[in-house]
Amino acid sequence: MLIVTGIWIYLFLTTFLIGYGILRGLTRFVPYRIRHADTYLFCGLAAVTVYAQFFSLFDGVGLTANLLLVAVCLGILWGSRRKHCISLSKTWRGMWENKGRSAAVLFLFCLFAYGTSRGMIHYDTGLYHAQSIRWLEEYGAVKGLGNLHCRLAYNSASFSLSALYSMAALGGRSYHCTAGWLAFLVAKICLEIIGRLRKGVLRTSDFARVMGIYYLVNIFDEMISPASDYFMVLLAFYIVIRWLELLEEEENTRAEMIFPYGILCVMGVFLMTVKLSAALILLLVIYPAYWLLKGKRWKETGLYLTLGIVTALPFFIRNIVLSGWLVYPFTQIDLFDVRWKIPKGVADYDAREIQVWGRGYSDVTRYEIPVREWLPDWFRALPGSDKVLVAAAAAAVLVLIGYVVGMVLGLWRRRWGLVLVQTTMAASFIFWLGTSPLIRYGCVYVYLTAAVIFGGIYDGIVSGRRQERDRGMKEAVRLGGMAAVILLLGYKCLALGREIVSSYENAYWLVQKDYDEYETDSYLIEDVVFYYPVNGDQVGYEAFPSAPVRTEIEFLGADIEDGFSAIDKEQ
């Protein structure tokens, strides 16, 4: 736990300074006052991840990458001393002015550092997450790496971030603290609901916070793993909560103040690079794009487009390097004819395997089963709580359709900004449900679809302008919503406390729990030792390089860092 805390402090300082430097530069171009300190942290987190991905194209993401990062941070720290810059120390002090809030944040910091130091290692971490991170640490992006094991071509920006802060280059073990850090940041944002409860007023963003807390409790004993699913879900919660909050604040401000929306859209691009299945979050771009085009603000439009392109570019380049495909394992876009390209048949099989696995099958031949057959079986196999949440999300989609019709007919107040968020979540939920509906792949859509739609209706009733005779109904709805939220939060906090007590181990106070280890055997490819598991398909971190099975590949050059090509080139 102590080492986790040290890495988190380093992570905090570097991402805060990078985020401060970037946002300070952007707000000189587009005047805007940053309202939340976490904006610097999330912006910095995205920026250092993009940096780590670019760096991986040339070398391993290790000591040199960190030294350059520290040098840039020191440059920003030095530049902040200039008179024309907003004082960095003033921004820093503003984060800690509220002593009560600071104490609560410190408690969360310690709690999540404790959770990140121990827990259960995700199955897929032993399957390929750990190996992906080690390849990044030692060699960076290697051509045709997916030919060794197709899952090593599952390119996620989160792996580059994990490699950057793993501290493996210092000669010890490889730490995996970044998912826990992101969970802590989202927990801090969810903590803001306490102030709303004290005031007795809940808005739509607070219902999203409630579901964020629900998710954080569920993954508390798993966030030790550097799984891309956790990064994707947590980032999605951040984007949606802050977006809704902007809409709520904007009721009394200028609608054309789109800078924070533009930054959140860039974060949406970043989210897509963490997990491509989250790409529908980019529907939110419609809102700032409308105001930019309406105001003919071409320079700002160019700024956000440039930021988005820079954010996405290393992700797509790494896709090509790792697999030979622009978007692996989807072969519909076939642009490159490179020697290390994963064969089309392998990629197609992999894509189908992902889909049938999400539907509850392990037999790829069941890929062609129609929705009317697999969907009922899938739903029946869900745990009870997931059944309720999926049913609530499905009901919310139907309610949204009626709600939009009612707004068009003028039956109630029109809030198109909110409807865009609701539609984005509903579309993401439907897309996930129709493709590969494994709960951990898309639980954020299940949670947020119901939260933002039903929460928006609640908000509209309670905060809307109503006649005097409606005050009794508004008060009843307000109290009912408050009671439901308090009961759910109380239940989940109690569940978390019981879980911590029941799984308590008097260990890992100094050093974080390491990756799981597995028994492996070895074989040679061109005089290089490769490993595979004796039982099952997990190989972990230490047995490197490895894959779940013995693989027939050939080297592109003299060494493994030159890359791999499949021996069987059948397309």
The geometry reads as globular
The fraction of residues assigned to DSSP E strands is under 5%
- Share in helix: 55-70%
Give a count of the beta strands, DSSP E runs of length 2 or more.
Answer: 4
Give the averaged pLDDT, no decimals: 88
- Summarize the helix and strand pattern as letters: HHHHHHHHHHHHHHHHHHHHEEEE
Distance from N terminus to C terminus (CA atoms, Å) equals 49 Å
Q: Gyration radius, to the nearest Å?
A: 24 Å
Describe the structure.
- The protein is mostly helical and 571 residues long.
- 61% of the residues lie in helices and 3% in strands.
- It has 20 helices and four strands.
- The protein has helices spanning 2-29, 37-56, 63-79, 88-94, 99-116, 123-138, 157-164, 178-190, 193-199, 204-219, 228-249, 259-274, 286-294, 298-323, 344-358, 371-380, 384-408, 416-434, 439-463, 471-502; strands at residues 520-525, 528-533, 553-555, 564-566.
- The strands form two sheets. It has a two-stranded antiparallel sheet. Strands 3-4 form a two-stranded antiparallel ribbon.
- A hairpin with a 2-residue loop joins β1 (520-525) and β2.
- α2 crosses α7 (157-164) and α8 packs antiparallel against α10 (204-219).
- The protein is globular.
